[in-house]
UniProtKB/TrEMBL annotation:
<dbReference type="GO" id="GO:0016740">
    <property type="term" value="F:transferase activity"/>
</dbReference>
<dbReference type="InterPro" id="IPR050486">
    <property type="entry name" value="Mannose-1P_guanyltransferase"/>
</dbReference>
<keyword id="KW-0808">Transferase</keyword>
<feature type="domain" description="Nucleotidyl transferase">
    <location>
        <begin position="4"/>
        <end position="205"/>
    </location>
</feature>
<dbReference type="InterPro" id="IPR056729">
    <property type="entry name" value="GMPPB_C"/>
</dbReference>
<dbReference type="Pfam" id="PF25087">
    <property type="entry name" value="GMPPB_C"/>
</dbReference>
<dbReference type="Pfam" id="PF00483">
    <property type="entry name" value="NTP_transferase"/>
</dbReference>
<protein>
    <recommendedName>
        <fullName>mannose-1-phosphate guanylyltransferase</fullName>
        <ecNumber>2.7.7.13</ecNumber>
    </recommendedName>
</protein>
<comment type="pathway">
    <text>Nucleotide-sugar biosynthesis; GDP-alpha-D-mannose biosynthesis; GDP-alpha-D-mannose from alpha-D-mannose 1-phosphate (GTP route): step 1/1.</text>
</comment>
<feature type="domain" description="Mannose-1-phosphate guanyltransferase C-terminal">
    <location>
        <begin position="282"/>
        <end position="409"/>
    </location>
</feature>
<dbReference type="InterPro" id="IPR018357">
    <property type="entry name" value="Hexapep_transf_CS"/>
</dbReference>
<dbReference type="InterPro" id="IPR005835">
    <property type="entry name" value="NTP_transferase_dom"/>
</dbReference>
<dbReference type="InterPro" id="IPR029044">
    <property type="entry name" value="Nucleotide-diphossugar_trans"/>
</dbReference>
<dbReference type="InterPro" id="IPR011004">
    <property type="entry name" value="Trimer_LpxA-like_sf"/>
</dbReference>
<comment type="similarity">
    <text>Belongs to the transferase hexapeptide repeat family.</text>
</comment>
Length: 412
Protein backbone atom coordinates (compact mmCIF):
# COMPACT_ATOMS: atom_id res chain seq x y z
CA UNK A 1 0.00 0.00 0.00
CA UNK A 2 1.45 3.34 -1.03
CA UNK A 3 1.49 6.62 0.88
CA UNK A 4 1.94 10.19 -0.28
CA UNK A 5 3.37 13.34 1.21
CA UNK A 6 2.48 16.98 0.77
CA UNK A 7 5.05 19.62 1.71
CA UNK A 8 3.59 23.10 2.18
CA UNK A 9 6.15 25.48 0.74
CA UNK A 10 4.28 28.82 0.94
CA UNK A 11 4.95 31.63 -1.51
CA UNK A 12 6.59 34.96 -2.14
CA UNK A 13 4.25 36.95 0.09
CA UNK A 14 4.95 34.65 3.06
CA UNK A 15 8.23 34.05 4.83
CA UNK A 16 8.86 37.80 5.11
CA UNK A 17 10.64 37.30 8.40
CA UNK A 18 13.32 35.45 6.42
CA UNK A 19 14.29 38.65 4.63
CA UNK A 20 16.81 39.73 3.48
CA UNK A 21 17.85 36.15 2.69
CA UNK A 22 14.54 35.38 0.93
CA UNK A 23 15.06 38.32 -1.46
CA UNK A 24 17.24 36.05 -3.62
CA UNK A 25 15.59 32.68 -3.21
CA UNK A 26 12.52 31.14 -1.54
CA UNK A 27 13.18 30.34 2.09
CA UNK A 28 12.68 26.62 1.51
CA UNK A 29 15.57 26.53 -0.99
CA UNK A 30 18.00 28.27 1.38
CA UNK A 31 20.88 25.86 2.12
CA UNK A 32 21.46 24.65 5.65
CA UNK A 33 24.10 21.98 6.29
CA UNK A 34 24.95 22.18 2.59
CA UNK A 35 21.46 21.39 1.26
CA UNK A 36 18.22 23.28 0.65
CA UNK A 37 15.89 23.25 3.66
CA UNK A 38 13.38 21.25 1.57
CA UNK A 39 15.91 18.47 0.88
CA UNK A 40 16.08 17.59 4.57
CA UNK A 41 12.36 16.74 4.56
CA UNK A 42 12.77 14.77 1.32
CA UNK A 43 15.63 12.77 2.85
CA UNK A 44 13.37 11.88 5.76
CA UNK A 45 10.55 10.85 3.39
CA UNK A 46 13.00 8.69 1.43
CA UNK A 47 13.40 6.59 4.57
CA UNK A 48 9.68 5.69 4.51
CA UNK A 49 9.38 2.84 1.98
CA UNK A 50 5.64 3.31 1.34
CA UNK A 51 5.96 6.93 0.12
CA UNK A 52 5.66 6.88 -3.68
CA UNK A 53 4.79 10.50 -4.43
CA UNK A 54 5.68 13.87 -2.90
CA UNK A 55 3.67 16.97 -3.83
CA UNK A 56 5.03 20.42 -3.05
CA UNK A 57 2.13 22.84 -2.72
CA UNK A 58 2.73 26.57 -2.79
CA UNK A 59 2.06 29.80 -4.62
CA UNK A 60 5.47 30.58 -6.10
CA UNK A 61 5.87 30.66 -9.89
CA UNK A 62 6.38 27.19 -11.35
CA UNK A 63 9.83 28.22 -12.60
CA UNK A 64 11.09 28.74 -9.02
CA UNK A 65 11.25 25.01 -8.37
CA UNK A 66 12.14 23.62 -11.81
CA UNK A 67 15.91 23.18 -11.18
CA UNK A 68 15.30 21.91 -7.67
CA UNK A 69 12.74 19.35 -8.91
CA UNK A 70 15.06 18.08 -11.64
CA UNK A 71 17.85 17.56 -9.14
CA UNK A 72 15.60 16.08 -6.43
CA UNK A 73 14.09 13.61 -8.92
CA UNK A 74 17.59 12.29 -9.63
CA UNK A 75 18.50 12.16 -5.94
CA UNK A 76 15.25 10.50 -4.83
CA UNK A 77 14.28 8.00 -7.54
CA UNK A 78 12.12 6.11 -4.99
CA UNK A 79 9.27 8.64 -5.37
CA UNK A 80 7.99 11.11 -7.90
CA UNK A 81 8.07 14.81 -6.95
CA UNK A 82 5.75 17.45 -8.39
CA UNK A 83 5.01 21.08 -7.68
CA UNK A 84 1.34 22.13 -7.55
CA UNK A 85 0.73 25.86 -7.66
CA UNK A 86 -2.14 27.54 -5.83
CA UNK A 87 -3.58 30.44 -7.84
CA UNK A 88 -3.29 32.48 -4.64
CA UNK A 89 -2.44 31.79 -1.00
CA UNK A 90 -5.16 29.37 0.07
CA UNK A 91 -3.89 28.75 3.60
CA UNK A 92 -2.30 25.63 5.01
CA UNK A 93 -5.47 23.54 4.44
CA UNK A 94 -6.98 25.42 1.46
CA UNK A 95 -4.30 24.12 -0.92
CA UNK A 96 -4.79 20.57 0.30
CA UNK A 97 -8.50 20.82 -0.41
CA UNK A 98 -8.03 22.51 -3.78
CA UNK A 99 -5.70 19.73 -4.95
CA UNK A 100 -7.59 16.88 -3.27
CA UNK A 101 -8.15 14.96 -6.53
CA UNK A 102 -4.43 14.99 -7.36
CA UNK A 103 -3.59 14.01 -3.77
CA UNK A 104 -6.11 11.15 -3.65
CA UNK A 105 -5.20 9.84 -7.12
CA UNK A 106 -4.00 6.24 -6.82
CA UNK A 107 -5.87 5.88 -3.53
CA UNK A 108 -2.94 6.44 -1.12
CA UNK A 109 -3.21 4.66 2.16
CA UNK A 110 -1.70 7.46 4.29
CA UNK A 111 -0.90 11.14 3.72
CA UNK A 112 1.97 13.00 5.38
CA UNK A 113 1.59 16.78 5.47
CA UNK A 114 4.76 18.67 6.34
CA UNK A 115 5.38 22.38 6.92
CA UNK A 116 8.48 23.08 4.86
CA UNK A 117 9.87 25.44 7.47
CA UNK A 118 10.35 22.99 10.31
CA UNK A 119 13.76 21.62 11.11
CA UNK A 120 13.52 18.36 13.02
CA UNK A 121 14.48 14.71 13.21
CA UNK A 122 11.28 13.79 11.25
CA UNK A 123 10.25 10.59 13.09
CA UNK A 124 7.96 9.61 10.18
CA UNK A 125 8.19 5.83 10.52
CA UNK A 126 7.40 6.14 14.22
CA UNK A 127 4.32 8.21 13.36
CA UNK A 128 3.20 5.53 10.89
CA UNK A 129 3.67 2.86 13.54
CA UNK A 130 1.57 4.85 16.02
CA UNK A 131 -1.10 5.36 13.37
CA UNK A 132 -1.49 1.58 13.01
CA UNK A 133 -1.17 0.81 16.72
CA UNK A 134 -3.86 3.33 17.67
CA UNK A 135 -6.01 2.71 14.59
CA UNK A 136 -5.87 6.47 14.29
CA UNK A 137 -7.34 8.86 11.74
CA UNK A 138 -4.79 11.59 12.31
CA UNK A 139 -1.44 11.98 14.07
CA UNK A 140 0.27 15.26 14.81
CA UNK A 141 3.94 15.59 15.70
CA UNK A 142 4.23 17.28 19.09
CA UNK A 143 7.27 18.69 20.82
CA UNK A 144 7.79 20.18 24.28
CA UNK A 145 8.97 23.77 24.70
CA UNK A 146 9.41 26.09 27.68
CA UNK A 147 6.16 27.53 29.06
CA UNK A 148 6.97 31.11 28.00
CA UNK A 149 7.65 30.02 24.38
CA UNK A 150 4.54 27.80 24.09
CA UNK A 151 2.11 30.66 23.53
CA UNK A 152 3.77 31.45 20.19
CA UNK A 153 2.74 28.07 18.81
CA UNK A 154 -0.28 25.81 18.44
CA UNK A 155 -0.78 24.17 21.85
CA UNK A 156 -1.99 20.60 22.33
CA UNK A 157 -3.80 19.07 25.30
CA UNK A 158 -4.00 15.27 25.44
CA UNK A 159 -5.52 12.56 27.59
CA UNK A 160 -3.38 9.80 29.10
CA UNK A 161 -3.64 7.73 25.88
CA UNK A 162 -2.06 10.57 23.82
CA UNK A 163 -5.39 11.41 22.26
CA UNK A 164 -5.65 15.10 21.35
CA UNK A 165 -8.64 16.51 23.22
CA UNK A 166 -7.98 20.21 22.80
CA UNK A 167 -6.01 22.35 20.34
CA UNK A 168 -5.52 26.13 20.48
CA UNK A 169 -3.37 28.11 18.05
CA UNK A 170 -1.24 30.74 19.83
CA UNK A 171 -3.39 30.85 23.01
CA UNK A 172 -3.54 33.99 25.09
CA UNK A 173 -2.90 32.11 28.31
CA UNK A 174 -0.77 29.07 28.95
CA UNK A 175 -2.55 25.79 28.28
CA UNK A 176 0.23 23.34 27.50
CA UNK A 177 3.97 23.02 26.83
CA UNK A 178 3.25 20.47 24.11
CA UNK A 179 3.14 22.25 20.76
CA UNK A 180 2.35 21.56 17.13
CA UNK A 181 5.53 20.38 15.37
CA UNK A 182 4.19 21.05 11.84
CA UNK A 183 4.21 17.39 10.67
CA UNK A 184 0.97 15.42 10.32
CA UNK A 185 -0.17 12.00 9.18
CA UNK A 186 -3.74 11.61 7.95
CA UNK A 187 -5.96 9.08 6.27
CA UNK A 188 -8.35 10.18 3.51
CA UNK A 189 -11.06 11.15 5.99
CA UNK A 190 -9.14 14.43 6.53
CA UNK A 191 -10.79 15.69 3.35
CA UNK A 192 -14.23 15.20 4.90
CA UNK A 193 -13.13 17.31 7.88
CA UNK A 194 -11.70 20.04 5.62
CA UNK A 195 -14.85 19.91 3.47
CA UNK A 196 -17.07 20.34 6.54
CA UNK A 197 -14.90 23.23 7.79
CA UNK A 198 -15.19 24.86 4.36
CA UNK A 199 -18.99 24.60 4.34
CA UNK A 200 -19.13 26.03 7.88
CA UNK A 201 -16.92 28.92 6.84
CA UNK A 202 -19.07 29.69 3.80
CA UNK A 203 -22.23 29.55 5.93
CA UNK A 204 -20.64 31.90 8.48
CA UNK A 205 -19.66 34.37 5.80
CA UNK A 206 -23.17 34.26 4.29
CA UNK A 207 -24.68 34.84 7.75
CA UNK A 208 -22.29 37.75 8.24
CA UNK A 209 -23.36 39.04 4.80
CA UNK A 210 -19.89 39.00 3.31
CA UNK A 211 -19.59 39.56 -0.39
CA UNK A 212 -20.20 36.38 -2.44
CA UNK A 213 -16.99 37.06 -4.27
CA UNK A 214 -15.01 37.39 -1.05
CA UNK A 215 -11.93 35.32 -1.80
CA UNK A 216 -10.96 34.86 1.83
CA UNK A 217 -13.74 32.24 2.04
CA UNK A 218 -11.43 29.95 0.08
CA UNK A 219 -8.70 30.30 2.67
CA UNK A 220 -8.57 27.47 5.18
CA UNK A 221 -5.98 27.14 7.89
CA UNK A 222 -5.03 23.69 9.05
CA UNK A 223 -4.29 24.97 12.53
CA UNK A 224 -7.28 27.18 13.36
CA UNK A 225 -9.95 25.71 11.05
CA UNK A 226 -9.12 22.00 11.00
CA UNK A 227 -7.15 20.86 14.04
CA UNK A 228 -9.57 22.51 16.44
CA UNK A 229 -12.36 20.43 14.82
CA UNK A 230 -10.28 17.25 14.73
CA UNK A 231 -9.68 17.55 18.46
CA UNK A 232 -13.45 17.13 18.92
CA UNK A 233 -13.45 13.79 17.09
CA UNK A 234 -12.15 10.32 17.88
CA UNK A 235 -8.88 9.06 16.46
CA UNK A 236 -6.64 12.16 16.67
CA UNK A 237 -3.36 11.42 18.48
CA UNK A 238 -0.06 13.14 19.14
CA UNK A 239 3.35 11.58 18.57
CA UNK A 240 5.64 13.34 21.05
CA UNK A 241 9.17 13.65 19.76
CA UNK A 242 12.17 13.88 22.05
CA UNK A 243 14.38 14.57 19.02
CA UNK A 244 15.46 18.06 17.99
CA UNK A 245 12.86 20.48 16.65
CA UNK A 246 12.79 24.12 15.65
CA UNK A 247 11.07 26.36 13.16
CA UNK A 248 12.90 28.31 10.49
CA UNK A 249 11.07 31.64 10.50
CA UNK A 250 13.54 34.50 10.89
CA UNK A 251 16.67 34.67 8.74
CA UNK A 252 18.75 34.15 11.87
CA UNK A 253 17.00 30.86 12.65
CA UNK A 254 18.87 29.29 9.72
CA UNK A 255 21.99 29.25 11.94
CA UNK A 256 20.59 26.93 14.67
CA UNK A 257 18.93 24.83 11.93
CA UNK A 258 22.31 24.52 10.23
CA UNK A 259 23.86 23.39 13.53
CA UNK A 260 21.15 20.82 14.23
CA UNK A 261 21.26 19.24 10.76
CA UNK A 262 25.09 19.22 10.74
CA UNK A 263 25.13 17.51 14.12
CA UNK A 264 22.61 14.94 12.93
CA UNK A 265 24.68 14.22 9.81
CA UNK A 266 27.87 13.99 11.85
CA UNK A 267 26.31 11.54 14.31
CA UNK A 268 24.78 9.32 11.63
CA UNK A 269 27.42 9.38 8.89
CA UNK A 270 30.78 10.80 9.89
CA UNK A 271 32.07 10.07 6.35
CA UNK A 272 29.21 11.88 4.58
CA UNK A 273 30.35 13.79 1.47
CA UNK A 274 31.44 17.33 2.34
CA UNK A 275 31.91 16.75 6.08
CA UNK A 276 35.44 17.88 6.96
CA UNK A 277 37.60 15.59 9.08
CA UNK A 278 38.47 16.74 12.61
CA UNK A 279 41.95 18.28 12.95
CA UNK A 280 43.75 21.08 14.77
CA UNK A 281 41.94 23.47 12.40
CA UNK A 282 38.56 21.75 12.06
CA UNK A 283 36.18 21.42 15.02
CA UNK A 284 33.34 19.20 13.72
CA UNK A 285 30.77 19.34 12.39
CA UNK A 286 31.89 21.41 9.41
CA UNK A 287 30.54 21.08 5.88
CA UNK A 288 32.72 22.34 3.00
CA UNK A 289 31.43 22.27 -0.57
CA UNK A 290 33.98 20.50 -2.83
CA UNK A 291 34.33 23.62 -5.01
CA UNK A 292 35.15 25.92 -2.06
CA UNK A 293 38.75 26.80 -1.24
CA UNK A 294 39.68 26.97 2.42
CA UNK A 295 43.22 27.81 3.50
CA UNK A 296 44.62 25.03 5.72
CA UNK A 297 45.45 27.59 8.44
CA UNK A 298 41.82 28.79 8.71
CA UNK A 299 40.14 27.45 11.86
CA UNK A 300 36.55 26.34 11.24
CA UNK A 301 33.81 25.01 13.49
CA UNK A 302 31.81 23.87 15.15
CA UNK A 303 28.62 24.14 13.07
CA UNK A 304 29.89 25.79 9.92
CA UNK A 305 28.72 25.33 6.30
CA UNK A 306 30.83 26.66 3.45
CA UNK A 307 29.07 26.93 0.08
CA UNK A 308 30.18 26.47 -3.53
CA UNK A 309 33.21 28.50 -4.74
CA UNK A 310 33.54 30.27 -1.37
CA UNK A 311 37.08 31.40 -0.49
CA UNK A 312 38.42 31.43 3.04
CA UNK A 313 41.89 32.92 3.59
CA UNK A 314 44.75 32.10 5.98
CA UNK A 315 44.32 32.69 9.70
CA UNK A 316 40.54 33.12 9.43
CA UNK A 317 38.31 31.98 12.32
CA UNK A 318 34.71 30.89 11.55
CA UNK A 319 32.23 29.28 13.94
CA UNK A 320 28.42 28.82 14.00
CA UNK A 321 28.00 30.31 10.54
CA UNK A 322 26.75 29.77 6.99
CA UNK A 323 28.71 31.05 4.02
CA UNK A 324 26.78 30.78 0.75
CA UNK A 325 28.15 30.49 -2.77
CA UNK A 326 30.86 32.88 -4.01
CA UNK A 327 31.49 34.45 -0.59
CA UNK A 328 34.98 35.46 0.48
CA UNK A 329 36.56 35.89 3.90
CA UNK A 330 40.05 37.43 3.70
CA UNK A 331 42.99 36.56 5.91
CA UNK A 332 42.73 36.83 9.70
CA UNK A 333 39.04 37.84 9.66
CA UNK A 334 36.62 36.47 12.25
CA UNK A 335 33.05 35.32 11.46
CA UNK A 336 30.77 34.00 14.24
CA UNK A 337 27.03 33.43 14.61
CA UNK A 338 26.58 34.92 11.16
CA UNK A 339 25.27 34.29 7.65
CA UNK A 340 27.02 35.54 4.52
CA UNK A 341 24.66 35.45 1.54
CA UNK A 342 25.84 34.87 -2.01
CA UNK A 343 28.79 37.03 -3.04
CA UNK A 344 29.27 38.72 0.37
CA UNK A 345 32.89 39.65 1.13
CA UNK A 346 34.66 40.23 4.44
CA UNK A 347 37.99 42.06 4.47
CA UNK A 348 41.22 41.15 6.24
CA UNK A 349 41.19 41.38 10.06
CA UNK A 350 37.47 42.31 9.96
CA UNK A 351 35.02 40.89 12.54
CA UNK A 352 31.46 39.86 11.68
CA UNK A 353 29.76 38.68 14.85
CA UNK A 354 26.39 37.72 16.21
CA UNK A 355 25.75 36.64 19.79
CA UNK A 356 25.82 33.07 21.07
CA UNK A 357 22.47 31.29 21.00
CA UNK A 358 21.37 28.00 22.48
CA UNK A 359 19.86 25.43 20.16
CA UNK A 360 16.68 24.95 22.17
CA UNK A 361 15.87 28.66 22.28
CA UNK A 362 13.03 29.55 19.93
CA UNK A 363 14.07 33.17 19.42
CA UNK A 364 16.69 34.77 17.20
CA UNK A 365 16.04 38.33 18.27
CA UNK A 366 17.04 39.93 21.54
CA UNK A 367 16.46 43.28 23.22
CA UNK A 368 19.49 45.55 23.65
CA UNK A 369 19.17 49.08 25.04
CA UNK A 370 15.40 48.82 24.54
CA UNK A 371 15.65 47.90 20.82
CA UNK A 372 14.99 44.49 19.26
CA UNK A 373 18.08 43.33 17.40
CA UNK A 374 19.01 40.11 15.64
CA UNK A 375 21.41 37.95 17.58
CA UNK A 376 22.65 36.53 14.28
CA UNK A 377 24.62 38.90 12.05
CA UNK A 378 23.40 38.74 8.45
CA UNK A 379 25.19 40.06 5.40
CA UNK A 380 22.82 39.93 2.41
CA UNK A 381 23.87 39.41 -1.17
CA UNK A 382 27.09 41.14 -2.34
CA UNK A 383 27.64 43.06 0.90
CA UNK A 384 31.25 44.17 1.37
CA UNK A 385 32.82 44.63 4.81
CA UNK A 386 36.12 46.51 4.55
CA UNK A 387 39.42 45.44 6.17
CA UNK A 388 39.55 45.74 9.97
CA UNK A 389 35.90 46.80 10.31
CA UNK A 390 33.82 45.29 13.14
CA UNK A 391 30.16 44.60 12.56
CA UNK A 392 28.10 43.09 15.34
CA UNK A 393 24.43 41.97 15.59
CA UNK A 394 23.52 43.71 12.35
CA UNK A 395 21.37 42.89 9.35
CA UNK A 396 22.91 44.41 6.23
CA UNK A 397 20.75 44.66 3.11
CA UNK A 398 22.12 43.70 -0.33
CA UNK A 399 24.99 45.48 -2.10
CA UNK A 400 26.06 47.68 0.85
CA UNK A 401 29.70 48.61 1.51
CA UNK A 402 30.45 48.78 5.22
CA UNK A 403 33.56 50.84 5.95
CA UNK A 404 33.07 51.78 9.63
CA UNK A 405 32.26 49.75 12.73
CA UNK A 406 28.52 49.13 13.30
CA UNK A 407 26.68 47.51 16.22
CA UNK A 408 22.98 46.52 16.63
CA UNK A 409 21.66 48.07 13.42
CA UNK A 410 19.69 47.23 10.31
CA UNK A 411 21.68 48.78 7.49
CA UNK A 412 19.49 49.62 4.49
P1 LIG B 1 3.20 32.36 11.00
O1 LIG B 1 4.06 31.30 11.56
O2 LIG B 1 1.89 32.43 11.66
O3 LIG B 1 3.90 33.67 10.91
O4 LIG B 1 2.86 32.05 9.48
P2 LIG B 1 3.70 31.45 8.29
O5 LIG B 1 2.97 31.67 7.01
O6 LIG B 1 5.14 31.89 8.32
O7 LIG B 1 3.78 29.97 8.63
P3 LIG B 1 2.65 28.90 8.95
O8 LIG B 1 3.10 28.26 10.21
O9 LIG B 1 1.29 29.43 8.83
O10 LIG B 1 2.90 27.97 7.73
C1 LIG B 1 3.48 26.70 7.85
C2 LIG B 1 4.03 26.28 6.50
O11 LIG B 1 2.99 26.36 5.52
C3 LIG B 1 5.16 27.15 6.00
O12 LIG B 1 6.10 26.30 5.38
C4 LIG B 1 4.50 28.07 5.02
O13 LIG B 1 5.37 28.43 3.98
C5 LIG B 1 3.36 27.22 4.47
N1 LIG B 1 2.19 28.01 4.11
C6 LIG B 1 1.63 29.02 4.84
N2 LIG B 1 0.55 29.50 4.20
C7 LIG B 1 0.42 28.79 3.05
C8 LIG B 1 -0.53 28.83 1.95
O14 LIG B 1 -1.41 29.65 1.87
N3 LIG B 1 -0.33 27.90 0.98
C9 LIG B 1 0.69 26.99 1.00
N4 LIG B 1 0.78 26.12 0.02
N5 LIG B 1 1.59 26.95 2.00
C10 LIG B 1 1.46 27.83 3.02
Amino acid sequence: MSSKAVILVGGGTRGTRFRPLSLDMPKVLFPVAGRPILSHALTALAAVPSVKEVLLIGFYDDSVFSDFLAEASREFPQFSIKYLREYRALGTAGGLYHFRDAILKGNPYRLFVIHADVCCSFPLNEMLQMFDDKEAKAIILGTHVEADAARNFGCIVTDDKKRVIHYVEKPETHISNLINGGVYLFDRSIFDVIGAARVAKIEDSVAAQFDDEDESREVLRLEQDILVRLAQTEGFYVYETRGFWRQIKTAGSAVPANSLYLQKLFQHDIDAPGLAKASAFIIPPVYIDPTASVDPTAKLGPNVSIGPRARVGPGVRIKEAILLADTEVKHDANVRYSILARGAKVGAWARVEGSPITLDEHQTVMVKNGARVQNICILARDVYVADEVRIQNCVVLPHKDIRTDVVNEIIM
